[in-house]
Amino acid sequence: MSNNDFFGSINSDGLTERSPLVRPAQAGGSNAKVDPYSSLFPASDEVAAQGLSSMEAQVRLERVGPNALEENEKPWWKLLLSFYIGPMAYLIELAVVVTLALRDWADFGVLFGLLNINAGIGFYEANKAGNAVAALKSALTPVAMVKRDGEWTEIDKANLVPGDLIRLRMGDVVPADCILLPLANATDVLEIDQAALTGESIPAKKASGDLCYAGSSVKRGDGDAWVKATGKQSFFGKSAALIAGVEAKSHFEQVLESITKVLIAVAFVLVTALIVARVIQQSTAKGKDLNGKFMGNLTKQALVLLVASIPIALPAVSTGTMAIGARTLSKENVIVSRLSAIEEMAAVDILCSDKTGTLTKNELTLDDPWLNPIHPELTRADIVLASALGCDPDPANAKDAIDSCILESAARELDAGFLSAHHVLSHEAFNPVTKRTMGEVEDPNGRRFRVCKGAPQVLFNLTNEDGSTTFDAGDRGRVNQAMEELAERGLRPVGVAWEVDGTWQYLGLLSFLDPPRDDTKTTIEQANELGVEVRMITGDHVAIAKETCRRLGMGSDIQGSEFFRRMHEETDEYIAQVIEEADGFGEVLPEDKYAVVDILMQNGHVCGMTGDGVNDAPALKRADVGIAVEGCTSAARAASDFVILSPGLSVIILAINLSRTIFSRMRNYVIYRVASSLYVLMFVFLAVVVYNVEIPALVLVLITLLNDGTIMTIAYDNVPISPRPVEWRLVRVVIIAIVLGVLGVAESSAAVFLSHTHGYGFNLGRKIDVPTSNGATMQINDKTYEDNQRSTVAYLALSLGGQLSIFIARTPSFFFTRAPAALLAGAVAFAALAASLLARYWPFGQDLEGISWSDIGAVWVIILVMVVVKDIAKVIVYKILDSAEARLGSSSTESRLEDRVMAFATVDRDAVRPDLRFFALPISDRIAPLPYSTI
């Protein structure tokens, strides 16, 4: 007997077969099948009727724990503290301590402020994320009606234990996985809405022995049930466990962590070499020694150089850039709960999607009916009218999903006056024994007739008034053929007949379908054009999934429950290949969705997931990008990175395009920032050790602040939208950054060298009068003043070279081929002007002196010439990389090198992945409570 008796062989439950209760004493023979949960039930009906005793319930509660979901919520102070931990934070903290010890209040204030701004930004973003487990808990009813010590009482549902006898009433949320007991009337059924759990749009009809799941709701009927599994052992609890187990850093966090560690490693090498060289210089110079002031300044300079070499403004730049995208999406009724997901959306190449409520409307609608060809005069209106008259006419009675759909269609398609002119004189309700409804109707002319609707085969048993057989072999053949065609398309048939003048006529078959959203097909086509493959993952029957795919223009290779049930028998390679090649998946459970997403991610895909139900929450949480659609449950909303508030999916295309734009801006920033770090590290080392030019710590802080302040405007830069999913390709990024950094060192070195020779417009130094022995004076060059000015030249070259490198890093082609945003260009102009004014009127002391406008002009000429040189070199390197990639393939050398770079990241996704082999077991084994033999 199917769970959905109305539809014959199609199981609307989509989850499990019948699980009849068989106690060992009732099993006949040694080979009789014994239910694995029989130990939960009392040994006799007399004991069973009393329910558990309070003492027994307490023992079981202590053994298995409360019927509640565990939360692993981190306290806010621990979350905040976590942003003061890590390579970047440690380095800044060390610099803060040193500047404090040296009482260098200006540097201390700047570094301390940067440390707290970074932590505050990170904490703000993390604290915004919803708690998915808490949302799941809110979906469960707080109390349950249970029989204890022979008395019905209402208790906190957290105190339920396996073996409890509970009562389910219309409107209740099922508090735990339970097995339904025989109903008061053998013809009664319970209708359970499991849409949030299974994705099934039609309520499942449950009879004695059927399993009801925690979190589902009772739509019709009342009944008693035995609790089978509670808490984390329940079907609902497994979903919560999957969600709680997903903790991994985003791709962008991993990329920046890897780059930061590489930069720190390089910086430590060069800074160590700098310290050693300066100590040797100081100790060997005449009249100088390694005093405390020297060592203090050297230590501060080394730490500030380390800080300047890492992207300390990254949180502000990345958050600002992605926050702009979040504000843009909010205008389209999309909430972004995790900002880094905007960047990850750019790389998504597979978008997995739930069907019910996501691709479809989650509204059961009447599809095109099959009209019996032996009655050519029949129209759609005739069969809609007949089926509506076969529904319960009493508006006070609750309607099942089929009757509600039929009545809504009738109200929409038929004249209201004509429909109301028909009077239903009597009505026989549906029950699982007859599997049909029957009504006697009087039309506007006073003529009486009967209508019948129900399981298509059942109508074959109708007899005429004279007792003759209603339908011959031809009628049966036509109906059966139509049923098979509808079933192949996943459409759910209901037969409709009426009796006129004592003779029954088979009018046809109604078919029902959850229709696609109005913009779903267009959205899928646009996603495909953008290189994003859309795959359906649904709890619905495979046939229904295939029909929906057909209507949406998606592939038809749909894997069903059989594949998931035998996963534990197959090799990892085979499983990965099947999932890689499939167009979609049907009859899946929440853990199956999770497994599909997880394996696709293991296969190297960046995976997105859309959904709306509790059953989607684990996969939404696991995916690189989770998207909850309009009308979603609180659990789906909390597990997602994006929440769509308005109907339709077209906004996903906007999010993809916007994310790719933001990705391009972030990649340009990373190229620029890595190049700048290498530039500063190498040049300062050469300036101090080789050129004998001092670069005070304050100069490095100013350069860092001006450059990072300017680059924040990259959030508004003009960039093209990539037609394909984008990825970091770190090897390419690092190579381009190294080229720009090395040439940057060359340009600043050229400025310092030419200023040392006093050529090309440089006129450094000043003459001072020195008295002679005969009372006259002579002019000599002030060497100290000249050295201080040379340090100013180095500062100006560093600052201008870094600022103008932004224009080079922002495009792989020549910098003049794409105009920058006005805000970015204005910020660079302001920073360059500020650097020039500081070079002319240096106000801070720190062993620097202002230089003339002609000297500033000379630095500008050198930098502008080198900008052209760097830009040409960049274009050549890009072409070389493109040629090498085309020759070797993008997955060869570059991929291996990138793996080594990413190895610096500390994330281990495998460490947070649950054992999916467990979920390949039959569902009855997966939700089994703990054994009670020891209780």
Automatic annotation (TrEMBL):
Location relative to the cell: Cell membrane; Membrane
Keyword Nucleus on entry: no
GO cellular component, one term: plasma membrane
A GO molecular function held by the record: metal ion binding
Classification via PROSITE patterns: ATPASE_E1_E2
Keyword flag Nucleotide-binding: yes
GO biological process: proton export across plasma membrane
SMART domains: Cation_ATPase_N
Coiled coil: none
Keyword terms, alphabetized: ATP-binding, Hydrogen ion transport, Ion transport, Magnesium, Membrane, Metal-binding, Nucleotide-binding, Phosphoprotein, Translocase, Transmembrane, Transmembrane helix, Transport
Pfam families the UniProt entry points to: Cation_ATPase_N, E1-E2_ATPase, Hydrolase
Transmembrane regions listed in the UniProt entry: 79-102, 262-281, 302-324, 642-658, 670-691, 697-718, 730-754, 792-809, 821-839, 851-869
EC main group: translocase
Chain ranges of the Cation-transporting P-type ATPase N-terminal domain: 36-104
Reaction catalyzed: ATP + H2O + H(+)(in) = ADP + phosphate + 2 H(+)(out)
Entry membrane topology: Multi-pass membrane protein
InterPro entries: ATPase_P-typ_cation-transptr_N (IPR004014), ATPase_P-typ_cyto_dom_N (IPR023299), ATPase_P-typ_P_site (IPR018303), ATPase_P-typ_TM_dom_sf (IPR023298), ATPase_P-typ_transduc_dom_A_sf (IPR008250), ATPase_P-type_domA (IPR059000), HAD-like_sf (IPR036412), HAD_sf (IPR023214)
EC number of this enzyme: 7.1.2.1
Family classification: Belongs to the cation transport ATPase (P-type) (TC 3.A.3) family. Type IIIA subfamily.
Name of the protein this chain belongs to: Plasma membrane ATPase
Organism: Thecamonas trahens ATCC 50062
